[in-house]
Amino acid sequence: MDGRVIEPREVPLGGLRALNVWRTLPHRDLPTVGAWCFVDHFGPTDDVMTVLPHPHTGLQTVTWPLSGEVRHRDSLGSDVVLRPGELNLMTAGDGVAHSEFSVGEPHVMHGIQLWVALPDGPRSGPAAFEHIADLPRVAGDGWRGIVLVGEFDDSRSKATAHTPLVGVELTLAARSLVTIPLDPTFEHAILAVDGSIGVGGGPQVAQRSMLYLAPGRASVVLDAERDTTILLLGGEPFMEPLVMWWNFIGRDHDEIVAARDDWQNQTRRFGHVDGHGGQIIPAPPLPQVRLRPRVRR
Ligand code: MN
Fold first, then answer.
1. How many Å lie between the centroid of ligand 1 and the Cα of residue 11?
2. Number of neighbours of residue 41 by Cβ within 10 angstroms
3. Under a CB-based contact definition with an 8 Å cutoff, are residues 221 and 29 in contact?
4. What pairs with residue 222 in β-bridges?
5. Which SS3 state, helix, strand or coil, does residue 261 take?
6. Residue 295 CA to ligand 1 centre (angstroms)
7. Partner of 226 at 20 to 30 A CA spacing, among 58, 149, 160, 274?
8. For residue 247, what are the β-bridge partners?
9. How far apart (Å, rounded) are the C-alpha atoms in residues 14 and 36?
10. Does pLDDT of 261 surpass 90?
């Protein structure tokens, strides 16, 4: 897998007017990068985000807008408008529900939504929500960045992480050869957000595609024709089995069935998101086969 480029696939998110996203994780051959298990890139688009209350288990959602504003409401009572440069981090634990609607003008939406798989322990623990507006800013020769999660270039985000993890937005200066330091105990992925990038004389990574880098590297050399924003994700390889279905992450089929039943029956597990008149997104039907953990190839 080392050095492989993962192409995005376009996926309709649903909702009143479907917002299309470009998904690079999970990929058939690569379920996770560190504990990062889901990467959706949406926009730039005039489409609005109207995602009614829906549940999550066993994961954290990480929302990073580059343009546009998103109102987040959840079953913990949070009601927050998220703006570019700010991070929303919601820890589902055993269960939480939330909604996301675009607000404000202009309506150009552009951003990234990611999931982080929770390890045993926190995955059965309480839900939590963090809105972080003062993320560390870092810079080096030919690059600048914002540390979303974990530590990079001696700066640490206060976002809660339950496994060794890093997430950084980096902007590469036009026509410079940039050396990005990496933790050699981590595997990494680089998502080309708003342009293509070259990698150390090797592959070219097209806009919206993702480059995978296996553990063992202390740095990577990148270049871009013009100022280009990328997302660097990494972490220690996550070895717990993950059964991912709809908005749930569990360890086996039965956990997913239980979570789906609890949502469909609106038990107390997921709580209530105020302000939607009782509207929710119902779970789709379960597949006819037993769900199995995703494996690495
Ligand atoms: Mn969600």
1. 15
2. 24
3. no
4. 178, 199
5. helix
6. 23
7. 149
8. none
9. 23
10. yes
3-state helix, strand, coil in the chain (%, to 5): 5, 50, 45
Q: Taking the CB of residue 185, how many other CB atoms lie within 10 A of it?
A: 12
- Measured in angstroms, how far is the CA atom of residue 56 from the centroid of ligand 1? 7
Residue 238, SS3 per DSSP: coil
Question: By the 8 A CB rule, do 138 and 152 touch?
Answer: yes
DSSP secondary-structure letter at 16?
A: T
Q: How far is the CA of 15 from the centre of ligand 1 (A)?
A: 12
Three-class DSSP category at 260: helix
Residue 201 has pLDDT above 90, yes or no: no
DSSP state of 269: G
Q: How far is the CA of 98 from the centre of ligand 1 (A)?
A: 6
- 3-state secondary structure labels for all residues of 103-121: ECCCCCEEEEEEEEECCCC
The beta strands (E) that lie in 59-175 are given as 59-67, 69-74, 79-82, 87-91, 96-103, 109-117, 128-132, 137-140, 143-149, 151-152, 155-156, 165-172
Angstrom distance (rounded) from CA 136 to CA 122: 25
What single letter denotes the amino acid at residue 4? Answer: R
User: Which band of pLDDT confidence, cut at 50, 70 and 90, is reported for residue 15?
Assistant: low
pTM: 0.96
Domains of the chain: 5-235 (2.60.120.10)
Mean pLDDT, rounded, for 84-106: 94
Q: Report how far ligand 1's centroid is from the alpha carbon of 54 (Å).
A: 6
What type of residue sits at position 100?
A: E
How close is the Cα of 221 to the center of ligand 1, in Å? 34
pLDDT band at 107 (very low <50, low <70, confident <90, very high): confident
The alpha carbon of 81 and the centre of ligand 1 are apart by a number of angstroms equal to 15
Sheet containing strand 59-67, edge to edge, reads 9-12, 20-25, 36-45, 109-117, 59-67, 87-91, 128-132
